[in-house]
Amino acid sequence: SDRWQRRPPGRPRRHFVPPSTEDAAGTVRRRPPASAVHECGQRPLVDSISGSRIVGGHDARTGAWPWSVSLQIHQAGVRFAHVCGGVLVNKNSVLTASHCVTGRQDPHSWRAVLGVLNLQKHGKHAAKRTIRSITVHPEFKRETFENDIALFELDSAVRYSDYIQPICLPPAHLYPHIDNETECFISGWGRTAEKGKTSPVLKDAQVEIIPSSVCNSSDAYEGLVSNNMICAGSRSGGTDTCQGDSGGPLACYHPSTNKYYLIGIASFGVGCGRPKFPGIYVRLSQYRRWIKSELPLILGTIALTLRISILLSYNLDFEVNPK
């Protein structure tokens, strides 16, 4: 129900955009509403890079991570409890970690909450959605956390706003350029210390992408980090995802496109924030084909509906105004 932990082998396993701008000619041009912007990886309420630095993190600013989703399980009565993070990739789809749904794959027991900073104060910009379907990667292995990725299909599409936006799924050519010069961030509502409490307020932190060779050394993960995983955090410890952050985004900013891309999904680790044991994330670059094979099943319905509505409006227009 959280971010799964491993112990090392040998021990038991276990900045605001103005509403309008004036050009050189003195013409005032209003910024279009976020609902009209269909680009991914944009943060309408915040400048391109957050100044704030989960374990070792700070409270996120309003609208800082508009693709962050709280995935919650139904409890007694009308109560829901946050279980894992998720990442909005289009109006109907949220990516998360497969291990989050182990033993609870009934979509009707889940809901997604979007557009919130504080889980105890949803506010007018929040959106809540029931879940239509949950697709777990067919080759997910709980013992090794291989292929720890799943897709939630929302019952109805969300409306994009300053508070709800999709993150970009990165094209292949971006991956060679992920290095220590790239600004990468984690965010979530999980524990703020290894044995601490979860946070009702979204936290974020900047992290370093750490080479797998370093993470797989004999005094660290000892080869447990496969090519399908990515290591991120701080080599000296202190900055990490923790229980309740699983399924949340490892998001990296690319100045060349002025967009954020989903590089990883929080998966597992040894404790939280320990030196030599950074967080392990699903390496999204390895799953583009699987994600694309699943998304069209959802997007196809939207495209068909759109096509029908366009044809209907065209035919009506033709009947009223024959050319």
Automatic annotation (TrEMBL):
InterPro entries: Peptidase_S1_PA (IPR009003), Peptidase_S1_PA_chymotrypsin (IPR043504), Peptidase_S1A (IPR001314), Trypsin_dom (IPR001254), TRYPSIN_HIS (IPR018114), TRYPSIN_SER (IPR033116). Residues 1-16 have a biased composition (Basic residues). Residues 1-39 are annotated as: Disordered. Keywords: Disulfide bond, Hydrolase, Protease, Serine protease. SMART domains: Tryp_SPc. GO terms for biological process: proteolysis. GO terms for molecular function: serine-type endopeptidase activity. Residues 54-296 form the Peptidase S1 domain. PROSITE patterns: TRYPSIN_DOM, TRYPSIN_HIS, TRYPSIN_SER. Pfam families: Trypsin. PANTHER family: ACROSIN-RELATED (PTHR24252), TRANSMEMBRANE SERINE PROTEASE 12 (PTHR24252:SF21). This is Peptidase S1 domain-containing protein. It comes from Aquila chrysaetos chrysaetos. The gene is TMPRSS12.
